[in-house]
């Protein structure tokens, strides 16, 4: 999440005012123009996915973006390889936003797709990307903590600025990362992004909680369910808003596959 905070008061996920989330305010603040941090994140994730599928040739696959919110570019990152992408979000306003964008997303998102198209796998996607996005995606209102109750496993996954941005609880952070990774099939590639040492954030006039996590906490949560992953620091302290130190991106594979990323 990229919006500022007046302070971090202890708050569990179930206590946060998710139905007051204003997706248009979030988009206006974050995605009306592409910031350098998102450019770097997209490039990292694009290369991770493209390199994997270039080697394996696996397609089509089923993807999921956990906590999609008002951010389309994680789903864009999965689009060349997926005939089916689940956009999962708990908040009713975000679900309505995603449903509207799924049919024909706003022009502001074109710059994000164009950046992805610097890689041939994205540029080679036939037809109109809006049509492809509409055909491949489905929006689902749901709780990431309930993913453990689902029998299906997705073969590609993203979770951007979610696990640390749903409560102040370190236990809920760890469980959120675990539920995301365990929703994926063994060996499935994934990408996740986090705000490091976030103090919470404001969307519109509403404050939302965040959990103060850094490299050790993120690494510890991921390595429980991932054999191979790399982590990257993106951006400078408070570059996007007050109250965080950097963004952290993790790319890897769900435990159980044979993929390698080299030294962590």
Give a written overview of the molecule:
- By secondary structure, the protein is an alpha/beta fold.
- The protein has one domain (13-254): Rossmann fold (3-Layer(aba) Sandwich), CATH 3.40.50.150.
- It is 33% helix and 21% strand.
- The chain contains nine helices and nine strands.
- It has helices at 23-30, 36-56, 73-78, 92-103, 110-116, 120-123, 129-136, 170-182, 215-223; strands at 61-66, 82-89, 137-141, 156-160, 189-196, 201-203, 206-208, 226-234, 246-254.
- The strands form two sheets. Strands 3-2-1-4-5-9-8 form a seven-stranded mixed sheet, sandwiched between helices. The chain has a two-stranded antiparallel sheet with strand order 6-7.
- Helix 8 (170-182) packs across helix 9 (215-223).
- The relative contact order is 0.19.
- GO terms for molecular function: methyltransferase activity.
- It comes from Streptomyces thermospinosisporus.
- Keywords: Methyltransferase, S-adenosyl-L-methionine, Transferase.
Q: What tags apply to this protein structure?
A:
9 strands; Rossmann fold; disordered N terminus; alpha/beta; disordered C terminus; 264 residues
